[in-house]
Design a protein that fits this description.
With 269 residues, the protein is an all-alpha fold. It has helices at residues 2-44, 50-53, 56-69, 71-103, 105-120, 127-134, 138-162, 166-174, 179-216, 222-231, 235-263. The chain has 11 helices and no strands. Helix 4 (71-103) runs parallel beside helix 7.
Amino acid sequence: MLKASASVQRVSGIEKGISAAARLRIMQALLFAALMALWYALTETEVLPTFFFGQPIAVFKCVVQWFVTGEIFYHLWMTSVETVLGFTIGASLALICGLWFALSPTASSLSDPYIKAINAMPRVILAPIFSMWFGLGIWSKVALGVTLVFFVVFFNVYQGVREVSPVVLANARMLGASKGQLLRTVYLPSATSWVFSSLHTSVGMAFVGAVVGEYLGSSAGVGYLILQAEGVFDVNTVFAGIVVLTMAALLLDALVGIVERRLLKWRPT
């Protein structure tokens, strides 16, 4: 009897959770529709000039045409490759360096002023230098993406390791844990939450690196399409490129979220 009651309560709780999630999605969709309607109304009544602000229907038609004709796939593929490479290499380097500096006070003290100086520098200005070093292919865009992703992840890894509970650390050492066991069972789990919170931000930074690099010199990519549209004052195509980039960024962010949920099953939701 008690089991049946608990089961009913659990099913009721799940139904309430699904219902709340569905209501939230509907409200989000309504907010999006309201914003699009406002944009349409303001441009149709010439309150906002269409030359500068475009028209939502024209933007939608451009996006649909790109996907129907297949024109966008090659450019989207190039931008995605540059973004994923920049994101993966930058996050991996940041994880290694963050762990190293957090566990080595000497290395951290020596490099501290240089890390702060490089982080304070507006790294977008490195794009022309990378173009000279690596040419106009994908690697100059990847290099810029790496510099943008690196520091976001690095500081989170560093902080995550530094904030390991001293009590947990002392208990693990008292039980005879080696350095490798401390790294696997204490430091890395502690830093994981910080890493994934920074990866969601880093996805957008990796796209920024790829698109800025394509702006400065390329023959393919969504940034290249936007640049070509800007050259002929085609603001609708510019907005269409932004929409495609946003959809790609959301997709990559969703993939990061799936990996996060699989690795952080222990974390309460």
